[in-house]
Amino acid sequence: MKSLHDTTTLHNGVKMPWFGLGVYKVQEGEEALQSVKSAIKAGYRSIDTAALYENEDSVGQAIKESGVPREELFITTKVWNSDQRNDSVLEAFETSLVKLGLDYVDLYLVHWPVKGKYKQTWKVLEKLYKDGRIRAIGVSNFNINHLEDLMSVAEIKPMVNQVELHPLLAQSELRNFCKKQEIQIEAWAPLGQGRLLEHPVLKEIAASHNKSTAQVILRWDLQNEIVTIPKSVKESRIIENANIFDFVLRESDMEKINALNENNRYGADPDNFNF
């Protein structure tokens, strides 16, 4: 992994960048437009959005204005829970596509494992994939039990599982399971929603490399073969976050960071959510 353009190969052969921009809680309009444009200008090629984020319009506009050929970009969006419950997954996908102004998306995810619905939702994603509307399909916030349940009926195995993952929630068991199943793990909230930036152990490691704490965490992701999508709306931070290809964490650094795990979630528990 030597640049922002480096990719992992999903089990269907599609190449996905290891590093991208997340836009959760980035406001629709100028904020989302400028953050995505700044990221693409800085060399990012992967942008992760969702119907829930309500900024697909601005993401699409930024893609259009970037001047970068569509085939060089990797765009992810997700189907929200209410559309699973209302059996309107296909309509939700079409709406996302129109908002993004795209003919296809590179990765479409089931946003949460809505009980009694996600297997039905997956069948719709499988059809969209077979029809060539989506280059890869996957899930988000699925634990091992959800993945096993889904794969018991799936014709096509998920290519990606995007979950909350950071040094205080290392998800080792889930990562090992996904690796065995050839499901690429991807981290949302890789910086613990900013809560980890002042962690003393991480700060100490960062100082030894003359890097920021965020850069150390994101480098830890890459060295653990975790796709990572940090969010920022500041151009300077967007550039800084991606400046992680000129150093390598030592084995002792990796061990110290691995030891920080507390199974500490900042987001909802996939086994117990009510939205």
TrEMBL record:
Entry EC no(s): 1.1.1.-
Enzyme class: oxidoreductase
GO terms of molecular function: oxidoreductase activity
Entry's family note: Belongs to the aldo/keto reductase family.
Source superkingdom: Bacteria
Species of origin: Neobacillus rhizosphaerae
Keyword Oxidoreductase: yes
Keywords per UniProt: NADP, Oxidoreductase
Gene: yvgN
Domain named NADP-dependent oxidoreductase: residues: 27-262
Signal peptide start and end residues: none
Gene3D superfamilies reported for this sequence: NADP-dependent oxidoreductase domain (3.20.20.100)
Name of the protein: Glyoxal reductase
